[in-house]
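Hi F.,

I've been meaning to write this up properly since the lab meeting, where we talked about keeping a consistent format for the predictions we share between groups. The idea is simple: the sequence comes first, exactly as it goes in, then the structure tokens exactly as they come out, then a line or two of notes. No screenshots and no reformatting. I'm using this chain as the first example so we have something concrete to point to.
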Amino acid sequence: MTRRNSALVAVAGAATLALLTACRSSGGGSGSSGSAAGGSSPAAGGASSGGGSAKAGKVVYIPGLTGNPFYNTVNCGAKAKAKELGVGYDYQGASTFGVAEQTKVLNAVVATKPGAIMISITDPTAMVGPLTAAKNAGMSFMSPFSRV
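Output, unedited:
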């Protein structure tokens, strides 16, 4: 495994561990305030933040919905770990919780061809099709809270 791939896996895997310490010590930011450098607005009217390095070294986190304190905390921890590892990071999601909304965001993210996708799946059964399509498009992905 290359250094870049190791860093992408580390960001995705360490996000769960880092989220509590990084966000609680900094007051926990939401990171869902529209586009930022390196980010783009996703389909479905969601949020985006981040920036960083080239797409091949970028992790995109897709939460169940934006504006939720739990997902904001995950975002904060993942962003901190990505920064620590020098990996690009972006946060994109829909403002409402649902499979259709999350599928639109996932498809928009896949079109940008990031290095990896970290996703908090809204419905593990209903998301099988969209996640399989993402995998077939060459995406690497993981979910910190459910089996994919």
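Notes:
Residues 3-142 form a domain with the Rossmann fold fold (CATH 3.40.50.2300).
The helical segments are 3-26, 69-85, 99-112, 128-136.

If this format works for you, I'll send the rest the same way.

G.
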